[in-house]
Each structure stands twice: as C-alpha cells, then as structure tokens.
Amino acid sequence: IVSGAALAAWIYYRRKQGLSAIPGGIMGDFSQHFSEREFLSRGRPLAGDTAASYRRLAAETLEPARSIAAGVAGEDVFALVVSGQRWSDQNAEGGKANSFHLPPAERPDLRFRENAGVAADVQFRRSSTRAPLTGEEHAQIAERVRASMRAGTIPPGGVAAYHRSWVPGAPTKTPFVHLDNRGVVITWET
What we know:
single chain, alpha+beta
C-alpha cells in the first residue's frame, strides 16, 4: 500500500519530467497536462466511443480548471484524476445509475445514453508541498468553473465539489471536483 504523500511525490516527480503520472502513459497525449491512461478504469481500456470525448474534456474543461485551481491556490498546482471512466460493475460501488463516468452505452436511461459526455473527478494539489488543496478551495474552484461554463469560456457540464470540509490532517476523505462535459451546466449537493 502506498501512502498519499508517496503517491503525490511520484506524480509530482513524473510530471516535472514531462511524463505521465502512470508509467507507460504519454504525458500530454490528450492535452498538455493529461494523458489517456489517467482516465482508464482500473486498467481497463476506454470504451471505443469515449476517447474523443475524454480528449475534449481534458483540453476544454480540465486544462482551464487547472488554471483556475492555480489562481485559487496562489501557486502552480497539479491535477490528479482520481476517477475517470468507470464500467457498470465498478460504478455499482456507489456511483449514480446514469453517471457520466459510465460509457454512454452502459447508461440505463436512453436520454443519458444518447449524450456522449464523459466525466472525471480531479483532485488539485499544491506543487510546492504536494498537499491537496483544502475542501473549501476545491469548492471555490468548482464555483469558478461553473461561472466560466455559464459565461461560455468552458463548455457546459456538471460541476460539484466533494468533501468540502476537509482540511490538512483531517481523517476524512480528501476533496475533489467532479467535472463533465454533458452539454448543460448543472450542479448538485455533495
């Protein structure tokens, strides 16, 4: 088992060298800071029809969100994709039935199946200390991304911050922001 600090150090080291956070991945094959392998579901390949959607999510939503996070943090940050695509057997562990983490073909509701949007949960970490930003900072990032979506500078999608009360040293789950490109701006309580 690898500690969160060791994982953060590994990712920081790999990215500083221009490499993917995951060995074998190519840094920047989807966007400047995101690689395809980061969106894989526990080693399973992306569903064939979702790679283009994840490429758009990385370039048009996650990259701007990373810049917004740097503004909130007041320093450079790196973004850790904690969950990308999930297959239905993995999503059953607590995900929503029509989650945008699921490949469209696996969403039960036809309205969601016809939407090519995809999702990623991203944790933003300080480059200086490798520590996650606080839950409140993740909430600020989510709010700013949502405002950018409404202003039309980021494609519309779902945005929600999770574990908003987390602070360094807290024994609870660390925060992240859910971001998707479903085509309409939406949020929900977490």
